[in-house]
Design a protein that fits this description.
This protein is α/β, with parallel strands linked by helices. It is about 40% helix and about 15% strand.
């Protein structure tokens, strides 16, 4: 099946040494056979990306993504053509075998099964013949994932770029993989490109009023869907081969149910691929049976049924799903037995068995909250509230994992239980999305360390992946030494060093971070897979700024450090004169400290509230 590429077919070829079996692709493809050969890429004029005449828009997008990434990695601006140009030494041919005779012939000659049943979800093949690399897939969006794998097989060696020669075949373990936002405005080209690179193949279209967290729970019944933003997002998603859920908030009073159904009708008319019935946390769950019946019937009129209808029960039924509410819904609307159920319950065989006992015929969808804010895991919250802080990339163990128990074995075998995996967060699509998307592609194929390496490689380049991992480990260590002060709700608080005895240790970690950050900032623009301007704005500048702010924060004294039992002492000095003496003494110590905090952090969110609270405490009572 594997055919060796030799020097004779490529005038400027060079055979590079590579360990046979060493795989640069994360997660490792289900089939990856290499015997150590590699070819040096010729100049851009001697290469071409070839697609079929009048290609599908997703095939065109895949070819353009390959063109952009190759330019960023190699500096070669390679032309895209519909016919093979003359005097070309290396052709990268992309397409569907059913549409391209040359692709079908190459696969057939190599004995590659391209029958419809052979591909799996989003399956693709990479096959080498002399002078050509064939990227074949059963459906257009799989070519996006194939070209991304091909780029991972390129290695820089001095002034040459070597392409590993390997037979590759892969497909997804979990069919639908998404990383969702709560407003159309966030689905811009930069973020959707990051999703495509992360092998995400669906999005959730939702929006709403800013005061209500936009479309956090789906389109509200009273939100005006104009279609202007929605059409743009749907078209951009479809260009990337993505399935689009139209999400409607259904927890509304019965008098508003007609408007809820109206929102469903509007989204279907705009071109969504599926209808998502959301009973997420807020609102009234009244008359749900009748409303869901109407929504299902409305969707059915437009050919939307079965797995293209999603159902998210209300709390706590989305976690503890074997409930009276859910059983009642199944009895009232039997079509829900074939729908996609989104739950926060862990992807365990036991949970899948309970769903089958309830009468649900399909695997379920996992609704995963990541990252969430809580006092027990401060390392991954932002210790400051300026425009953007740098977030260290952790793993599943470091984040809130919903409402149910989860372990490594469940994660590794999640594809046996899940039809969909959706991570809910609104930040860092180039890092968290890469981590989650690569996991969802093949849950058992990669370790946490490898998943992180994938994200670092794409963001900063393979040469800097280890340095980025080291930086994040130190940053995590520093953040673990910080503590909340202020209100209980995590977004309304300030941070400080938890134990001042650790100040020297934390400063030592910061000293280790500085040269790592300097190296990454200097070298990453030459190695990144993403747009350099975006890299600078969203990652490199925040990385430097975060180190500087952390150093200032760690070395700033706070009232809680100087007078840890202030409230107790103040309460004990209950006589007016005694309290006045106590406050005068404390003011001498604390007013300069508060002024220093205001100078260092006064423009951060919630700092003025924190300062006001302390200054009120220090007010001397009038005579």
């Amino acid at each position: 099946m594997f055919r060796r590429i030799i020097v004779s077919f490529l005038a400027c070829a060079a055979i590079g040494a590579a360990a046979a079996g060493d795989c640069p692709v994360i997660p490792r493809p289900r089939t990856y056979r290499a015997d150590g050969d590699a070819v040096a890429l010729p100049t851009a004029e001697k290469m071409a990306i070839v697609v079929a005449p009048k290609p599908h828009e997703v095939v065109t997008y895949a070819a353009e993504r390959l063109q952009k990434t190759l330019f960023r990695l190699t500096g070669r601006q390679i032309a895209i053509a519909e016919t093979v140009p003359e005097n070309v030494e290396l052709i990268i041919r992309m397409g569907l075998p059913e549409c391209e005779a040359d692709l079908a012939a190459a696969c057939g000659k190599a004995g590659i099964d391209i029958s419809p049943a052979s591909w799996g979800y989003d399956g693709f093949v990479i096959h080498f013949t002399p002078g050509q690399v064939h990227l074949a897939a059963a459906e257009p969006r799989a070519l996006i994932y194939a070209q991304e794998v091909l780029c991972a097989m390129i290695k820089r060696e001095g002034d040459r770029h070597l392409l590993t020669v390997a037979e590759v075949r892969d497909h997804a373990g979990i069919r639908w993989r998404s990383y969702s936002w709560n407003s159309c405005q966030w689905y811009n080209d930069v973020n959707l490109d990051a999703y495509a690179d992360a092998r995400m193949n669906c999005i959730e279209l939702r929006d709403g009023f800013a005061k209500d967290l936009y479309g956090h729970y789906g389109y509200p019944y009273n939100y005006p869907i104009t279609g202007e933003n929605e059409r743009k997002v749907i078209a951009a998603a479809h260009r990337r081969g993505m399935f689009v859920w139209g999400v409607v908030a259904c927890a509304a009073a019965p008098e508003n149910h007609p408007q809820v159904v109206g929102q469903v009708e509007k989204l279907i008319a705009l071109g969504v691929d599926g209808v998502y019935i959301s009973y997420d946390d807020p609102g009234k769950v009244q008359g749900a049976e009748a409303l869901i019946r109407q929504i299902v019937d409305t969707a059915k009129k437009h050919g939307i049924a079965g797995e293209r209808i999603a159902f998210l029960p209300p709390y706590p039924d989305y976690a503890k799903f074997y409930s009276d509410f859910n059983l009642k819904m199944l009895q009232s609307v039997p079509e829900l037995r074939d729908a996609t159920w989104f739950l926060t319950a862990s992807p365990s065989p036991e949970n899948l068995a309970m769903l089958k006992d309830m009468g649900i015929r399909k695997k379920f969808g996992w609704f995963f909250n990541w990252p969430m804010g809580n006092r027990d895991a401060p390392a991954y919250q932002r210790p400051f509230f300026f425009e953007r802080a740098y977030l260290p990339l952790g793993d599943f163990d470091d984040f809130d994992r919903g409402m149910d128990w989860l372990d490594d074995e469940m994660l590794a075998r999640a594809d046996r239980c899940l039809s969909s995996a959706m991570v809910w967060t609104r930040e860092y699509p180039e890092t968290l999305a890469q981590f989650f998307g690569a996991w969802a592609w093949n849950p058992g194929a990669a370790s946490t360390r490898e998943l992180r390496k994938r994200a670092y490689t794409r963001l900063y380049g393979a040469e800097l992946a280890d340095a980025a991992a080291e930086f994040d480990r130190y940053l995590t260590g520093v953040n673990h030494n910080l503590s909340f002060i202020g209100d209980d709700f995590w977004t309304k608080c300030l941070w400080r060093l938890r134990d001042v005895r650790n100040r020297r240790h934390v400063n030592h970690m910061l000293a280790k971070m500085k040269p790592l950050a300097a190296r990454i900032v200097m070298e990453a623009p030459s190695h990144t897979w993403i747009d350099r301007e975006h890299l600078q704005k969203e990652y490199l500048i925040p990385m430097q700024k975060t180190v500087a702010w952390l150093e200032r924060l760690v070395n700033t004294r706070f009232p809680e450090e100087i007078v840890p039992d202030f409230d107790r002492q103040s309460a004990q000095s209950y006589l007016r004169l005694k309290r006045a003496d106590f406050l005068r003494e404390q003011r001498k110590k604390l007013v300069p400290v508060l002024n220093d905090i205001e100078c260092n952090f006064g423009r951060q969110r919630h700092v003025p509230q924190y300062l006001k609270k302390w200054r009120n405490k220090l007010e001397i009572p009038e005579k």
